[in-house]
Amino acid sequence: MKTNKTKPMIIAMDGPAGSGKSTTARMVAERLKLPYLDTGAMYRAVTLVAIEKKIPLTAEAKVAALAAKIPLRFGKLKAGEQSVWLGRRNISRDIRTPELTAQVHHAASSGAVRSKLVLLQRRTAQIGGGVIEGRDIGTVVFPDTPYKYYLDADVRLRSRRRYRELKAKGLKATFAQILKDQKERDYRDANRKIAPLRKADDATLIDTTKLTISQTADIICDLILGQKPRLKSGRN
Predict the structure, then answer these.
(1) Is the separation of the CB atoms in 24 and 217 below 8 Å?
(2) Is 235 part of a structural domain of the chain?
(3) Which CATH number covers residue 42?
């Protein structure tokens, strides 16, 4: 789906972890037949490679150089899921562990690293458009797109979603620790000096606390297609 023959449609979807934006973004991409790009996975991939190469995450120049050359690629959406590859290696599971999640903030708060990955994000989306989700898509990466959505939800609910996700993947986790980590992550994301997490002034705020993923996707697709949003509440 494109806005016209020359300008691809870019849908920016931001929000804190656990707000449902990743799953919603994938669903919207499938419904509108657009590519999907998880920018957070890029920072996770850079963090993973830096750790494996024993590069200090605080060594910004070295991590940025790494970000500029890692052979990162994304698989096609299949049944709402997307694989992440580093060359021929599938790192989809490796970049989602709680241990790595706790370290991603180093790359995410680095101006040098972000500048490399933002360029990649823009080049990728400008080819065929897409649903792009992250923390600064509507404020920094694509501030001119008219399609901006900011998803949020109660922090305990967001933590519960994360807990269920990790348990389903067979990863060790406790709700208390996830809630603690989530609050700390929210604070870091909102208060970092480089591209802090915030709602763009012209973004549509969607509280997903009482919405299912499908209902959230309904609202966004309706808004994009110029239809009256379906605002029924649901269970999470």
Answers:
(1) yes
(2) no
(3) 3.40.50.300
pLDDT in the model for residue 71: 94
Instruction: From 142, 139, 120, select the one nearest 11 (Cα to Cα).
Output: 142
Q: Is residue 43 part of a domain?
A: yes
In the chain, how many domains are there? Answer: 1
3-state secondary structure the chain: CECCCCCECEEEEECCCCCCHHHHHHHHHHHHCCCEEEHHHHHHHHHHHHHHCCCCCCCHHHHHHHHCCCCEEECCCECCECCEEECCEECCCHHHCHHHHCCHHHHHCCHHHHHHHHHHHHHHHHHHCEEEEECCHHHHHCCCCCEEEEEECCHHHHHHHHHHHHHHCCCCCCHHHHHHHHHHHHHHHHHCCCCCCCCCCCCEEEECCCCCHHHHHHHHHHHHCCCCCCCCCCCC
Q: What is the pTM of this model?
A: 0.84
Across the chain, which has 236 residues, the per-10-residue mean pLDDT values are: 67 94 94 93 97 97 95 86 93 93 93 94 90 94 96 95 87 91 92 91 96 95 80 47
- The pLDDT of residue 148 is 97
Domain carrying residue 124: 10-224
Residue 231 inside a domain? The answer is no
User: Quick check: is 47 in a domain?
Assistant: yes
